[in-house]
Amino acid sequence: MSVEIYKLHKLMNDMNKDELSLLLSKFKCSRNKDSEYFLKKIAVRHEKKDISRTYVAIDTDADAILGYFTLALKCLSVDVADLDEDVIELMNLKDNVAQAYLIGQLARSDHAERGSGKMMLDEAIRSFFVGKDMFGCRMVRLDCRDELIDYYRSHDFRPIGKNPDKDLNQMARFI
User: Model confidence over 113-159: pLDDT tens digits?
Assistant: First the structure.
């Protein structure tokens, strides 16, 4: 298997609309139907509006999407009451708001090999190191379900609270 990571906007430029739609329509993620829906119905619109950037991991031998991740910038309102002082210091808070890079989506397909998620997460973090070097900002954040907390902890993320709807855990990693 040969895996390449493509920027979605490059695929948008290199393929006609029908070809791209067909490629994206083949992505299946039964573990998280919202992630499947995002790639198929929202990612292209976010690219066009410069809301986020989506990166697609493709098995070039099988011409199949193994997974994808979406990166963006998003400020984070923080309730400092339950946070350690060292975390608060790393966040560079101003009026309880922190600048952060966001991993908005990270999903692997049903047929992707074990380790594909880690490969995409590592690639996302590498992208943020480039951003940090160019623009500053040291916090990477994501929201995840309870069952993924340990997975993200194993990749140096730490819980910092719940999202406003209280249904996802906000996790942060400092780079």
Answer: 989 999 999 999 999 999 999 999 999 999 999 999 999 999 999 99
Summarised one tens digit per residue, pLDDT across range 43-83 is 999 999 999 999 999 998 888 999 999 999 999 888 888 78
Domain that holds residue 62: 3-174
| pTM of the complete model | 0.91
Give the count of domains, the chain.
1
Give a three-class secondary structure readout of the chain. CCEEEEEHHHHHHHCCHHHHHHHHHCCCCCCCHHHHHHHHHHHHHHHHCCCCEEEEEEECCCCEEEEEEEEEECCEECCHHHCCHHHHHHHCCECCEECCEEEEEEEECCCCCCCHHHHHHHHHHHHHHHHHHHHCCCEEEEEECHHHHHHHHCCCCEEEEECCCCCCEEEEEEC
Task: Identify the CATH number of the domain in which residue 127 sits.
Answer: 3.40.630.30
